[in-house]
Specification:
This protein has 329 residues and is of the alpha/beta class. The protein has helices spanning 53-61, 88-94, 106-109, 116-127, 132-145, 151-154, 164-176, 194-211, 222-228, 246-251, 256-263, 303-307; strands at residues 9-22, 25-38, 42-46, 69-78, 81-82, 99-102, 182-186, 214-218, 231-236, 239-245, 312-316, 319-322. The chain has a domain at 9-40 and 47-93 and 230-267 and 275-322: P-loop containing nucleotide triphosphate hydrolases (Rossmann fold). The strands form 2 sheets. Strands 6-7-8-3-9-10-12-11 form an 8-stranded mixed sheet, with helices on both faces. Strands 2-1-4-5 form a 4-stranded antiparallel sheet. α4 crosses α5.
């Protein structure tokens, strides 16, 4: 039996705030996010579009979009080191080697004017200096590792010559070529059909089992969460409102938003009826309420929900929720 490689915390995010400073105001896209990730673990980050999932990932990588985005507060501890204090030059050495990211659209992640081999070679050479022949052999091995057939031929092809599934595998090969301890996968299966999705998820699990890397898996699909993740963090309007083991979250969700999300997933068995919806809209990230951010859509809302944001409540083993109605364990 393979030994359990989990336990050691490799990534810890503390009270992270990333805002957009625009002429018309401040957009608090990430507003107090905290979580941890252990070696060999998959943490799912779920929530509606626009809740801040991808910007959280870009904040961890120090790859914020130009145009006013800025991390103004918090810590990102990678193996105990706060990488928010590293210089841009130092971050270039950290990215790819210690922490990598797979973006959701491989078509925009790969440079169309460079061959697959050139792009893999660049990633490998950032990790080590070696003769070109040796680097290309390692590039072929990287493609073979992600189950790309005939890698010797594919290495000389360009992105437009590959299918969407193959391109996503190439992006994955580039991300893990530096042997990082943490991999951020930002909705990597969104552009893939269902069959290819399943193959890609199995590939990620196999690579994780081989390397012991920790994965932050960003998705909006609870089916993927159930298949891939050990724990799940539910994000709403810039904050994580519930976090815990996948089984506990699925069987006994505590936050009303989490319950609403799970209820909205179509059922594959039983009579066909109307889909469950979440009424209303998320609050503007430029004008957030002082109380619970889900209050305007919550069927259980009380006055105290409007007056102040609820403190984090521990409701079980490694299970927390931000809700006034939750009873502490």
């Amino acid at each position: 039996m393979k030994p359990d490689m989990r336990g050691e915390t490799v990534l810890e995010v503390r009270d992270l705030h990333t805002h957009f400073f625009l002429r018309r105001g401040v957009v608090k896209a990430v507003d107090g996010v905290s979580f941890s990730l252990r070696r060999g673990e998959v943490l799912g980050l779920v929530g509606e579009s626009g809740c801040g999932k991808s910007l959280t990932a870009l904040s961890l990588m120090r790859l914020l979009p130009k145009g006013g985005a800025q991390t103004i507060k918090g810590e990102v501890l990678l193996n105990g080191e706060n990488i928010l204090k590293r210089t841009p030059a130092e971050m270039r050495e950290i990215r790819g080697r210690r922490i990598s990211m797979v973006l959701q659209d491989p078509q925009t992640s790969l440079n169309p004017v460079f061959s697959i081999g050139d792009q893999l070679r660049e990633a490998i050479e950032r990790r080590k200096r070696a003769p070109n022949v040796e680097v290309m052999k390692e590039a072929v091995a990287a493609l073979r590792r992600v189950d790309i057939a005939a890698p010797e031929q594919r290495i000389g092809q360009y992105p437009h010559q590959l299918s969407g599934g193959m391109k996503q595998r190439v992006v994955g090969a580039i991300a893990i070529s530096g042997e990082p301890g943490v991999l951020i996968a930002d909705e990597p299966t969104t552009a893939l059909d269902v069959t290819i999705q399943l193959q890609y998820l199995k590939l990620l699990k196999r690579l994780q089992a081989e390397t012991g890397m920790a994965i932050l898996f960003i998705t909006h699909d609870f089916g993927v969460v159930g298949r891939m993740c050990d724990r799940v963090a539910v994000m709403y309007a810039g904050r994580i409102v519930e976090c815990g083991p996948v089984r506990q979250i699925f069987e006994a969700p505590q936050h009303p938003y989490t319950r609403a999300l799970i209820a909205s997933v179509p059922k594959m068995t039983g009579p066909v009826g109307r889909l469950t919806t979440i009424e209303g809209q998320p609050p503007s990230l430029m004008d957030l309420p002082v109380g619970c951010r889900f209050a305007s859509r919550c069927p259980l809302v009380e006055q105290r929900c409007l007056d102040a944001y609820p403190a984090e409540v521990r409701v079980g083993d490694a299970h927390t929720a931000d809700c006034w109605k939750v009873t502490p364990a």
